[in-house]
Amino acid sequence: MNVSKAQERDRYDSLAPLRDHFCLPDNTIYLDGNSLGVLPKAVLDRLQITVATEWGTDLISSWNNHGWIGLPQSVGEKIAPIVGAAPGQVLCCDSISINVFKLLATGLALRPKRTTILVEAQDFPTDRYIAEGLAQLLGPDRCVVKAVAGDELEQALNSDVAVLLLSEVNYRTGYRHDMAALTRSAHAVGALTCWDVAHSAGAMPVAFDQADVDFGVGCGYKFLNGGPGAPAFLYVAKRLQNQVSQPLSGWLGHRQPFDFTPSYQPADGVLRYQAGTPSVIAMRALEAALDIFDKVSLAALREKSLALTSFFLECLADQTCFESFGVLTPSDPACRGSHIAITHEQGFAIAQALIAAGVIVDFRAPNIIRFGFAPLYNTFEDAARSAAILGAIMAETRYLEPCFQRRQKVT
Ligand SMILES: Cc1ncc(COP(=O)(O)O)c(C=O)c1O
Predict the structure, then answer these.
(1) For 94, 128, 157, 306, which has the most beta carbons within 10 A of its beta carbon?
(2) Active site includes 171?
(3) Where a domain ends, among 260, 294, 328?
(4) pTM of the full predicted structure?
(5) Does ligand 1 lie within 6 Å of residue 171's CB atom?
């Protein structure tokens, strides 16, 4: 019943044709675009040219002739509208982890009398690990990390907070914070904000400029479909860019890298946030993957994302097994990202049984199964069928098979 309802909704989905731009394996329902986006067909063509012609034939001349040297900036400008940034504020480079380090160090330098970096205790660990690494490096007189629950962040904002570091959408629960409101609260006590939009960019409009955000980071490999290990991006509000420089003062953040001068002079603006040589092949893949965002409005993507997650929740509720699960994701769509997280004490084994049945989800310790819905290519039929397959797995207790208990390194 839900499947025919889903097919009907797919027929009237104006974004449905976008699915043809992606390589989706047969007999698979891919619900892990919140971890690794699928391969856009445009990437195959672009990489063929980059590898065979730009690298294979034109070799070193490509740094100039094919614009390799400007890729962090030009790909950053392609990401800028996706995160609601006017030109000149987004750079595509490094990983989120490295970019968080650069931005937190900058934030502390901009607030020299303050020591606290405030984080959400249940946020993606790398952000906190990096903050703690920086605190260790600087010592407790200069930097301490304070971790509190998501609903305690407002109260924890005080006159010692230099930077509030927070994911807009929580990687476990799928809870979406109000970026504008929290940024206002942070600014009211004189703190800066650094928003991680790994689980937002490409699935919904992000409004860095409008929310008056100070810093931002995000990755290229989830909803932007840039490929495994795709370069990340960072955002620095124009008003802050030239006030201080960041500590990873590599040569490509220099004002004139090819002058090879002995002393470091930071480039103007966001370019000073580059450190070393960009990974050209990976940048080209991400660049090609971003083309699809010219064809679609982010508001339409958000609408479809919420329709998919709401429909999936309805389909789940129809399964007799539903009561054996906890649902972490808020039922209020405004507070939801683009994935649904459910919990079960056998969560790991259930996730493996789903994967074996062709429903690709992932597991997050200790007991969370995540179903990611990428509005560019997931369908309502994906939602209905995956809920039905989960129902069958539970009814048959298929997850108890020993093969579903074996843990690999990546979950
Ligand atoms: C919110 C968030 N931040 C950061 C990361 C990972 O950062 P990095 O690109 O440095 O591996 C992830 C990975 O899934 C994430 O979900």
Answers:
(1) 94
(2) no
(3) 294
(4) 0.97
(5) yes
